[in-house]
Design brief:
Elements lengths: L1 H19 L1 E4 L9 E2 L24 H7 L6 E6 L4 E8 L9 H4 L3 E5 L5 E4 L2 E3 L4 E5 L12 E6 L5 E10 L4 E3 L8 E5 L1 H4 L10 H9 L3 E5 L8 H7 L6 E5 L12 H15 L4 E4 L11 H24 L4 E4 L1 H4 L14 H19 L21 H14 L4 E5 L1 H4 L13 H7 L5 E5 L5 H9 L10 E5 L10 H18 L4 E5 L8 H14 L5 E4 L2 H4 L19 H16 L1
Parallel strand pairs: 12-13, 12-14, 14-15, 15-16, 17-18, 17-19, 19-20, 20-21
Antiparallel strand pairs: 1-10, 2-3, 3-9, 3-11, 4-8, 4-10, 5-6, 5-9, 7-8
Length: 580
């Protein structure tokens, strides 16, 4: 008995020791914005609120109170910890009759591995004075040393008092700053706020954020999405990628007569300040519309008024205005909890309809995509996201004339953004003398990663003179030649949609040791299948190979990456097209 008690004591002591070795991180302790999904991070009354403090005196109290809920907000961090704990406190109840505690007041964690694959994380949780989530036994399938990027979605229907994230002592941990990309802004109702998802990650705005990876700002207010002028005033302050106006579920019955006047006035006001696309959304219907004419007539009347506003705004000449119909949303009677608010199934249906429309508006998938799904990556020892953000910052500071889109061969050549390794800055400077050039080479990038970067504003907001594409070598290990050729043409189309006036040059895959024949054959086919009306093919193989087709070893550091002399030869071969 004494031995058993001793063993139990030792186990308890060990457990206490392990628990005490957790290091807690607080997003409020950083000197940069750490809460993603906010538009006024420097003007908030509460750290996890959604509207600026000055709005409290301008909007109705019920709406202001809802703005203190953390709907659509998230914290992004990178760690290699195998155990992640979250603890926090909230104001208000844990749950609602039609929405569980995990949905109303819970958090939700998603990981993104080194190849850009998203992985949902399950937790053990306990709701009390302090709510706790424990994510244990996390496995890393890509480089464990680099860890994963994590996104923690916050409670959609609760006000956070404070929140901390804990990892075992010795684990790497860093918060990721808020992106400089323009956000998709949602102005909506309880459905947009998150009712009735079973967990925050299943709120339709968060699904869009996860699937498309564009920043999303959720201004959904339960029962209070009413096309009000005060909210449109606030919307005009946001430099958005897209505005979504989804208020019809709160504009039924005695508010239906307000729709036309409020919608037209609000859209005009928004268009005066912003050229961003605006998407008007119909009422999605009710679960009992097949058994209740009253329910059916209710939503149909709202949609008639909204469509009239849309058509008249178009007739006025309002540009970049789009419309999502009830039929396109495609709700059915099994998609709702109580006939009004979506279940997880309904949220997914809603998100899918939105994603399809958003891709159409933003011209994503315009390249007739095949096997390549745009995604991030973190395979090389540098912070991929930070380099992307640096590109966005540099583009705003000084408009580039020439873009060099590539992988590590371009990344470590020279230019800006600067890299930890620079193989030949001199040849870079000599080749591009007098030109503003942006190095859009990212080490270990594949075609799908370059597509992601093109979608995420690296080519937006300016007109370049020339764009060079040197992509495909990292796809040799996982894709067929036909897939790679199709993928390069997809890149050309994606570039053309964003840089309609630029000259596009596709540089053939550089020869590499042990794969010279495959690369040579692929380049020959690429030349014949390239979209010649959109791009010009440039072949550098002759500068880097012997008469028998093998690489000149003295021009490479490892059979793949050119050395100083190799870059000098590449620069000399590119001189003519740079001067064109």
């Amino acid at each position: 008995m004494l031995k058993l008690m001793f063993a139990i004591t030792i186990c308890l002591a060990y457990s206490a020791c392990i628990y005490s070795q957790i290091v807690w991180k607080n997003p409020t302790a950083e000197n940069f914005p750490t809460v993603h999904g906010q538009a006024w991070s420097n003007e908030l009354k509460g750290f996890y609120h959604r509207l600026p403090q000055r709005a409290e005196s301008k909007v109705r109290k019920p709406l202001w109170d809802l703005s203190t809920n953390s709907a659509g907000l998230s914290v992004v961090f990178r760690t290699n910890a195998t155990n992640i704990q979250v603890r926090y406190q909230i104001n208000g109840d844990f749950s609602m009759p039609h929405m569980p505690a995990t949905g109303k007041s819970g958090v939700d964690l998603y990981a993104t591995d080194g190849n850009g694959c998203q992985r949902w994380c399950a937790a053990r949780y306990a709701f009390g004075d302090t709510i706790r989530y424990n994510y244990s036994n996390i496995s890393y399938v890509t480089n464990p040393e680099y860890g994963y990027e994590y996104q923690l979605f916050l409670p959609p229907y609760s006000e956070l008092k404070w929140l901390e994230i804990g990892v075992p002592e010795g684990s790497d941990f860093s918060f990721e700053p808020v992106s400089k990309e323009k956000p998709i802004v949602i102005y909506g109702t309880s459905i947009a706020q998150g009712a009735c998802a079973s967990r925050p990650g299943m709120v339709w705005g968060n699904i869009i954020n996860r699937k498309m990876q564009h920043p999303v700002i959720n201004l959904g207010f339960s029962g209070n999405g009413r096309l009000e002028s005060e909210l449109f005033d606030l919307l005009t302050e946001i430099d958005a990628k897209l505005f979504i106006i989804d208020n019809m579920p709160n504009m039924t019955n005695d508010r239906t007569f307000l729709i036309y006047e409020r919608a037209t006035a609000g859209i005009r006001k928004l268009r005066e300040k912003s050229d961003a696309p605006i998407l008007l959304v119909e009422h999605n219907g009710y679960g009992n519309e097949l058994s209740s004419l009253e329910a059916e007539n209710s939503y149909r009347k709202t949609n008639i008024e909204l469509r009239k506003a849309y058509k008249d705004l178009q007739a006025e000449g309002i540009k970049n205005l789009y419309y999502l119909t009830k039929e396109e949303i495609g709700f059915h009677q099994d998609a709702m909890v109580e006939g009004v608010h979506p279940s997880d199934l309904g949220m997914q249906i809603y998100a899918d309809a939105y994603i399809s429309k958003i891709k159409e508006i933003l011209k994503e998938d315009c390249e007739k995509r095949t096997v390549f799904v745009p995604c991030t990556q973190n395979r090389d020892p540098y912070n991929w996201k930070q380099r992307h953000e640096k590109v966005l910052k540099l583009n705003k500071e000084k408009v580039p004339q020439i873009l060099m889109i590539g992988n590590s061969i371009t990344h470590y050549w020279g230019g800006e953004p600067t890299a930890r390794l620079v193989r030949d800055e001199n040849s870079w400077k000599k080749l591009f003398k007098g030109k503003t050039v942006r190095n859009l080479g990212f080490g270990y990038d594949r075609i799908e990663n370059a597509l992601w970067r093109i979608y995420h504003e690296e080519l937006d907001g300016y007109e370049a003179e020339k764009v060079f594409l040197l992509m495909g070598t990292n796809n040799l290990e996982k894709n067929s030649d036909d897939e790679i050729i199709d993928g390069i043409n997809e890149l050309v189309r994606a570039v053309r949609h964003r840089q309609p006036k630029a000259k596009i040059y596709v540089v053939g895959i550089l020869p590499r040791a042990w794969q010279e024949l495959r690369v040579s054959t692929l380049n020959k086919v690429l030349r014949t299948r390239l979209l010649t009306d959109e791009a010009t093919f440039v072949d550098l193989s002759a500068e880097l190979t012997l008469p028998n087709g093998n690489i000149i070893n003295e021009l490479f550091s490892d059979g793949l990456h050119p050395n100083k002399e190799g870059y000098q030869r590449i620069a000399k071969a590119l001189e003519k097209v740079i001067k064109e």
